[in-house]
């Protein structure tokens, strides 16, 4: 008789066990071990009770020793050493523990629960990873309350911003931290335009009742457009910061930002847009940011976008802001029709006075630097010479000049500092300043690059030195 391949048979035999469901095994064991307690099972995906405790809302004391066989004492855990996230931070790494089976005395408010925390992955697949809390108590209603509060906390942001990228909403601490450093005082714009930008957004979030009284939907769309490097992104970040702070300082409601980086998604752009707007409706009132709108809303996604923006579902409380370099490349259905994007703000290259202010901004930044002389007279000189530059080009000129100076100082050729070289007054004296000499070189180099770039774009270049 042919018995088939022995090894294949063994493999099949081994792999076709009875159906397993670790959750049921645990329930049965817990009910047997604690017949007088209720068992409430709460999956980790919705609330993380250990993190909730670590954040200071409860305590979770591990119970490690039992009176029985040591081999079966909790916990079961994995230990990993995680090296520093970024080499640049020069922070030490840290040990990370992942509990697979743990037993805790969990104290929350005035209640104590016995809690098992168990990874009950069944079968061979890594996904889904089913980890549950098993809460044992005589007061199940209190356990329900705990689950509710911990779930709300888990869903909230904690010094993070929601960012949509790669098809998911994810929390970003990095963006939050960079937003914390963004202030309107560092954004140089025409004063009236700056006031209008801010008032537009503040008025929107303050005026729910007005919109309701007028029976118009409480939603708004704003576009920031203009050549690269003139403050669209830093204005969005300063606005984000202001909207978060509102809650703390002005006794108003803090407004969260939802930040969309791209629509690329495993589910295609239609799915991405539906997820984006679903979240925005849930979080409203909120500030919904689409950076580089023209690359996000191309021909393929136009109809899905419009469907979400003026479809059947209400978008109350959503203020959309999109930034773009190319208003002309945006679909007219998006750019030209109010009610989708109602207002457009142009961010031009800075004029003379703004370039002077930007030089003053750098003067302030360099105040503490003993080696660099930066007298007031230099600011208008810099403004004269940078006609046609964006702020980003001006920034590049400063950074490049300072790097050259610092490099020279490190080489010790004596050209690095210029405190001793300043004499009194006059243009000739400015020529002696190492910062001014380097800035001029860098500005001229950048101007060449700018000339090439603009002639490629088909624009006329105006030199006005
Ligand atoms: N109006 C401004 N005031 C002060 N600094 C500015 C201003 N605009 C730009 N800068 C400087 O230039 C850098 C780039 O600016 P930003 O990222 O805001 O440009 P952008 O308009 O968003 O450009 P892009 O269209 O390429 O995205 C900023 O980090 C800042 O240092
Ligand atoms: Mg930008």
TrEMBL record:
InterPro entries: AAA_ATPase_domain, ATPase_AAA_core, P-loop_NTPase. Residues 223-348 form the ATPase AAA-type core domain. GO terms for biological process: ribosome biogenesis. Transmembrane segments: none annotated. One of its GO terms (molecular function) is ATP hydrolysis activity. This is P-loop containing nucleoside triphosphate hydrolase protein. It comes from Sporormia fimetaria CBS 119925. The lineage of its organism: Eukaryota, Fungi, Dikarya, Ascomycota, Pezizomycotina. CDD domains: RecA-like_protease (cd19481). Keywords: Hydrolase. Gene3D superfamilies: P-loop containing nucleotide triphosphate hydrolases. One of its GO terms (cellular component) is nucleus. The keyword Transcription regulation does not apply.
């Amino acid at each position: 008789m042919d018995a088939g391949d022995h090894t294949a048979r063994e493999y099949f035999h081994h792999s076709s066990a009875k159906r397993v469901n670790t959750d049921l095994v645990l329930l049965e064991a817990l009910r047997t071990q604690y017949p007088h307690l209720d068992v409430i099972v709460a999956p980790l995906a919705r609330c993380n009770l250990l993190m909730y405790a670590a954040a200071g809302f409860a305590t979770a004391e591990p119970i490690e020793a039992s009176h029985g066989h040591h081999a079966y004492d909790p916990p079961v855990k994995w230990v990993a050493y995680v090296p520093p996230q970024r080499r640049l931070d020069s922070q030490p790494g840290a040990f990370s523990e992942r509990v697979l089976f743990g037993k805790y005395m969990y104290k929350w408010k005035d209640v104590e629960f016995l809690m098992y925390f168990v990874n009950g992955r069944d079968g061979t697949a890594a996904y889904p990873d089913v980890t549950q809390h098993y809460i044992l108590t005589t007061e199940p209603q209190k356990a329900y309350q705990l689950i509710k509060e911990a779930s709300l906390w888990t869903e909230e942001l904690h010094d993070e911003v929601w960012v949509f990228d790669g098809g998911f909403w994810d929390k970003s601490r990095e963006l939050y931290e960079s937003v914390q450093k963004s202030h309107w005082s560092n954004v140089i714009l025409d004063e009236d335009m700056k006031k209008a930008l801010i008032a537009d957004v503040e008025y929107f979030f303050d005026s729910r009742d007005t919109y309701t009284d007028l029976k118009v939907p409480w939603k708004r769309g704003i576009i920031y457009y203009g050549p690269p490097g003139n403050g669209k992104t830093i204005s969005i970040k300063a606005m984000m910061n202001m909207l978060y702070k509102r809650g703390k300082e002005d006794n108003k409601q803090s407004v969260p930002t939802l930040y969309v980086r791209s629509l690329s998604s495993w589910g295609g752009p239609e799915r991405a847009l539906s997820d984006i707007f679903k979240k925005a409706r849930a979080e409203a009132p909120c500030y919904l940011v689409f950076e580089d709108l023209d690359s996000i809303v191309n021909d393929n996604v136009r109809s899905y976008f419009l469907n979400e923006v003026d479809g059947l579902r209400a978008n109350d409380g959503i203020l959309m802001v999109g930034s773009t370099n190319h208003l002309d490349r945006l679909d007219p259905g998006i750019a030209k029709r109010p009610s989708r994007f109602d207002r457009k703000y142009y961010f031009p290259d800075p004029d003379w006075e703004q370039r002077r202010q930007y030089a003053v901004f750098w003067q302030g930044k360099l105040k503490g630097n003993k080696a660099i002389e930066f007298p007031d007279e230099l600011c208008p000189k810099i403004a004269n010479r940078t006609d046609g530059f964006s702020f980003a080009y001006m920034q590049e000129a400063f950074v490049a000049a300072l790097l050259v100076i610092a490099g020279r100082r490190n080489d010790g050729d004596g050209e690095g500092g210029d405190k001793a070289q300043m004499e009194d007054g006059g243009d000739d004296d400015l020529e002696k300043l190492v910062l001014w000499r380097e800035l001029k070189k860098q500005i001229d180099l950048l101007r060449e690059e700018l000339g090439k770039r603009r002639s490629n774009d088909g624009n006329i270049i105006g030199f006005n030195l």
